[in-house]
Specification:
CATH superfamily: Multidrug efflux transporter AcrB TolC docking domain, DN and DC subdomains
Helix content: 10-25%
Radius of gyration: 16 Å
Number of domains: 1
CATH architecture: 2-Layer Sandwich
Largest sheet: 2 strands, antiparallel
Number of strands: 6
Order of helices and strands: EHHEEEEE
Number of helices: 2
Strand content: 25-35%
Distance between the termini: 19 Å
CATH topology: Multidrug efflux transporter AcrB TolC docking domain, DN and DC subdomains
Length: 92
């Protein structure tokens, strides 16, 4: 019996904040599960590269405040895309 977490993405809210819904889902996936990046060759073997958030950043629904997705409409002070916390558009 593996732990389960059900999340609801508010698509309307996400779009109103300039977030691409697919980017939101990608951020959630990166937070919760390993994501395959690439393979590399080392010591005569092919090694698979996966990334995911450290355990301390994916312990529960409150972790959504620590993950961000880039906004197409909001910009930061440096002119770069604004980063929106997932907790603004995802609820457990």
């Amino acid at each position: 019996d593996a732990p389960q977490l059900q999340l609801h993405v508010d698509r309307v809210q996400a779009q109103s904040m300039g977030l691409d819904v697919s980017d939101v889902y990608s951020s959630i996936q990166l937070m919760l599960a390993p994501v395959y990046i690439n393979d590399y060759f080392s010591e005569g073997r092919i090694k698979r590269v996966n990334i995911r958030a450290d355990d301390q950043f994916r312990t529960g629904p409150e972790s959504l405040r620590s993950f961000f997705s880039p906004s197409a409409t909001a910009t930061g002070a440096d002119g770069q895309p604004g980063m929106i916390p997932l907790s603004n558009v995802v609820k457990a």
